[in-house]
Design a protein that fits this description.
This protein is an all-alpha fold and 104 residues long. The protein is 62% helix and 0% strand. The N and C termini lie far apart (40 Å). GO terms for molecular function: lipid binding. Pfam families: LTP_2.
């Protein structure tokens, strides 16, 4: 495993742990951790989302769109993830995923 791979795994464990502690009541833990393939894109490390990212995004939009709103409304920063808000908001475009118009 490369250093980058190890670091990504470590970040995901931290995200899952912190999300579980902070938002277990909302039922979004598994939905948001399923978006781990999107981390490279929304942090600016990759110029395009992977097919697995797009597939997971589509699943979360269908099953738990409120979880995406939670993440986009500052949830990522509470996990120590520096998310590029512009890339995160643009993710549905390159993934060709229709999302609800606005977060509450």
């Amino acid at each position: 495993m490369t250093y980058r791979g190890f670091a990504l795994c470590l970040v995901m464990v931290m995200v899952a742990t912190m999300w579980t502690q902070n938002a277990a009541q909302s039922g979004c833990t598994s939905a948001l951790t399923s978006l781990s393939p999107c981390l490279n894109y929304i942090t600016g490390s990759s110029s395009s989302p992977s097919p697995s990212c797009c597939s997971q995004l589509s699943s979360v939009v269908q099953s738990s769109p409120q979880c995406l709103c939670s993440l986009l409304n500052g949830g990522g920063s509470s996990f120590g993830i520096t998310m590029n808000q512009t890339l995160a908001l643009s993710l549905p475009g390159p993934c060709k995923v229709q999302t609800p118009p606005h977060c509450p």
